Amino acid sequence: MSLPPNFGQAFDLSSLGKPPASPTSPTIAAGKVVTKENLASDFVELSMTKPVILLCWTSRAPHSLDTLAILDKLNKEDAGAWELGSIDVDAAPEVAGALQARTVPYAVALVGGQPIPLFEEAMTESDIKSVIVKLLTIAAEQGIGEVPEEKLEPEEIEALAALEAGDLVKAEDAYKRFLARMPANPYAKLGLAHTQLQLRIVSLDPAQTIAAANNAPHDIDCALSAADMEVATGSVEPAFIRLLALIKTTSGDDRSRVKDRLLELFSLVDPSDPRVIKARADLANALF
Question: What's the Cα-to-Cα distance from 27 to each of 24, 75, 87, 95, 207, rounded to whole Å?
Answer without folding.
Answer: 9, 19, 12, 18, 59
